[in-house]
Amino acid sequence: MQMQTQTQTQTQKQMQKQKQKQKQKQKQKQKQKPAREPITPRQPRAPKVDNFHTTYHPSSDHPTKIEAFDVFSLYPSNPFPFDTKPWLPFRSELEFDFAKIMLDSALLNKHVDVLIKIIRLSKENRYPFEVETHQDLRTSAAGLHGLAPFEPHDVKVPYLDTTRIHTLWLWPLMAWIQNALKDTYLASVINWDALQHDKYNGEEWIPFITEPWTAKRMWSFQSRIPKGGKPLAITLYTDKTRLSSFGGHQGYPIMANIDNLPDTVRNGHGLGSTQVVGWLPI
């Protein structure tokens, strides 16, 4: 019995020594492995000099973005498409040229009728020229293609002991705006949301204004209208350097711009540019 007990005791001691040796070997292996560097969360990219920061109005649902100097652009990349029919709403380029000459010449209606009669007798069949009276020209320019015609409005002006009445001719603004927005290109470049541009100078973001929708007034206005609504800005002005004569009357043209369109469009030529929407008699 004593010999069995001694044998078991020796066996247990040997097993304990083996376990201790294994633990020491594991510790030595762990010491030999290089220490793993702690993982730090990835920090956002810091702005660089000449970076641009664009902040959209909160109701626009557009994310804020930071762009490099060589990437930032104020205008859409798609170029203005070539207008294959710049004479619209007239039916042909020939009719457009004829109407321009008539307006520049300030001819009376009866003289225009006579000239139209002569042209119709000598016209060539390869050009669609179907004007018969001066009223056809007015129809082509104002309402032939869905445009509302100019409307007269009498304005009473006190003068000494009398009241004078002046007729003010206006083109309904809403009709003009709706007609412009029907164009697929203008609808693609028009900007409906206020935004802010900032440029980083190495220390801070400096705001700058490029278009009407980047100014504080447009931002403030969009903040006051219900969510989902979009601001539309119109500029109206008269140009006294462009005195116009119609028969025995003179007046200044009333001009209008859609400020939501890019500067290259609204201050350019053709579709989307400055439009005469009224005539102010003097």
Residue share in β-strands: 15-25%
**Helix content bin:** 25-40%
Radius of gyration, whole Å: 39 Å
The tally of helices reads: 8
What is the N-to-C order of secondary-structure elements (H for helix, E for strand)?
HEEHHHEEHHEEHEEEHE
Strands, count = 10
N- to C-terminal distance: 137 Å
Helix/strand-derived class?
Answer: alpha+beta
Largest sheet: 6 strands, antiparallel
Look at the structure and give the mean pLDDT. Answer: 79
Stretches with pLDDT under 50, minimum 5 residues:
39-44
Q: Shape, please?
A: elongated
Outline of the structure:
This protein is of the alpha+beta class and 282 residues long. Helices cover 34% and strands 22% of the residues. It has helices at 2-32, 93-105, 109-122, 134-142, 173-181, 184-189, 216-224, 263-266, and strands at residues 52-56, 65-67, 151-159, 162-170, 195-200, 205-208, 234-238, 244-246, 249-258, 275-281.
Description of the structure:
This protein has 282 residues and is α+β, with helices and mostly antiparallel strands. The protein is 34% helix and 22% strand. The protein has 8 helices and 10 strands. The protein has helices spanning 2-32, 93-105, 109-122, 134-142, 173-181, 184-189, 216-224, 263-266; strands spanning 52-56, 65-67, 151-159, 162-170, 195-200, 205-208, 234-238, 244-246, 249-258, 275-281. Strand 1 (52-56) and strand 2 (65-67) form a beta hairpin. It is elongated. The protein starts with a helix and ends with a strand. The model is unreliable at 39-44 (pLDDT under 50).
